[in-house]
Amino acid sequence: MVLRSWAAGIDDPEFWNRGIWSPICFNAPAARTYLPRIIAKARLTLAAKSKTQIAEAIRATLDKDELPTLEIGAMCYMMSQDGHLSDRD
């Protein structure tokens, strides 16, 4: 899939950078346990929530065990030379 800037941490200075696009692959444990977090953040972002609202919603969802715990061995990796990972790099 292609990650956008809002998949980064809330404190990342490029959180709202529209130019970020990062081709990424997930192994099976990451697809089961990390990908749902990314999808949840994307839905909140597309619903025009603020960074604070996104952080609070994800935290609340994790506290209620509504998102899976990350599995041991979950890994994301990039198999592409294309993409724009940061304006800083």
Strand content: 5-15%
| Number of domain units | 1
Biggest pleated-sheet summary? 2 strands, antiparallel
Alpha-beta classification: alpha+beta
Number of DSSP strand runs? 4
Q: Which bin fits the share of residues in helices?
A: 25-40%
Taking pLDDT < 50 over at least 5 consecutive residues as the criterion, the unreliable ranges are: none
Whole-angstrom Rg: 13 Å
Compressed to H and E, one letter per element, the order equals: EEEHHHE
The CA-CA distance between the termini, in Å, is 21 Å
Q: Tell me the strand order in the biggest sheet.
A: 1-2
- The count of helical stretches stands at 3
Task: State mean pLDDT (0 to 100 scale).
Answer: 92
Shape: flat
Concise structural overview:
By secondary structure, this protein is an alpha+beta fold.
Question: What does this protein look like?
Answer:
The structure is a single chain. The chain has 89 residues and is α+β, with helices and mostly antiparallel strands. It has one domain. 35% of the residues lie in helices and 11% in strands. It is built from three helices and four strands, in the order βββαααβ. The protein has helices at 28-33, 35-46, 51-63, and strands spanning 2-4, 21-23, 25-26, 76-77. It has a two-stranded antiparallel sheet. α2 packs antiparallel against α3 (51-63). The protein is flat and about 40 Å long. The model has no long low-confidence stretch (mean pLDDT 92).
